[in-house]
From TrEMBL:
<dbReference type="InterPro" id="IPR039298">
    <property type="entry name" value="ACOT13"/>
</dbReference>
<keyword id="KW-0472">Membrane</keyword>
<dbReference type="InterPro" id="IPR029069">
    <property type="entry name" value="HotDog_dom_sf"/>
</dbReference>
<dbReference type="Pfam" id="PF03061">
    <property type="entry name" value="4HBT"/>
</dbReference>
<keyword id="KW-1133">Transmembrane helix</keyword>
<feature type="domain" description="Thioesterase">
    <location>
        <begin position="54"/>
        <end position="125"/>
    </location>
</feature>
<keyword id="KW-0812">Transmembrane</keyword>
<dbReference type="InterPro" id="IPR006683">
    <property type="entry name" value="Thioestr_dom"/>
</dbReference>
<feature type="transmembrane region" description="Helical">
    <location>
        <begin position="67"/>
        <end position="88"/>
    </location>
</feature>
<keyword id="KW-0378">Hydrolase</keyword>
<protein>
    <submittedName>
        <fullName>PaaI family thioesterase</fullName>
    </submittedName>
</protein>
<comment type="similarity">
    <text>Belongs to the thioesterase PaaI family.</text>
</comment>
Length: 141
């Protein structure tokens, strides 16, 4: 896989500028690592992310997987705001608790028009809570 061309700081600046709505109720997402074909994003869930039974909601985990997939693609192709999700499939594996969730993404394919990302969502000291595969359409450059 190619080396990333955007740093963690550049990714945060881009997301803050182009998608400020992801931080409407406070900053809960942050890229923690980026390297060749790999990125880790952290979600710090709050009460608003919970469902009955004190579990983090599915939509919150989908958001994490989708934003992390977008971030790994941008880290490797540059700030292309119009790259869009064309498919996202998620498998919920275990009940997540109200604790940070980490999404480790790996680029499976990075082509000129499509990118495919595998995303594994985990919590500290626990088995994976979800796994997603996302496909993004990359606009012509």
């Amino acid at each position: 896989m190619p080396a990333p061309i955007l740093s963690i700081e550049q990714l945060h600046e881009f997301l803050d500028r182009e998608f400020p709505q992801i931080h409407v109720n406070g900053r809960v997402l942050a890229v923690t690592e980026v390297s060749d074909g790999r990125l880790v994003m952290r979600l710090d869930p709050s009460d608003r992310h919970l469902r009955p039974g004190n579990t983090v909601s599915g939509p919150s985990m989908v958001m994490l997987a989708d934003v992390a997939a977008y971030a790994i693609i941008l880290a490797h192709i540059g700030p292309v705001a119009l790259a869009v999700t064309t498919n996202l499939n998620i498998n919920f594996l275990r009940k997540p608790t109200l604790a940070p969730i980490f999404c480790e993404c790996r680029l499976l394919k990075l082509g000129n028009r499509l990118a495919v990302v595998d995303a594994l969502l985990t919590q500290e000291g626990a088995e994976p809570v979800a796994q997603a595969t996302a496909t993004y359409s990359i606009p012509p450059r």
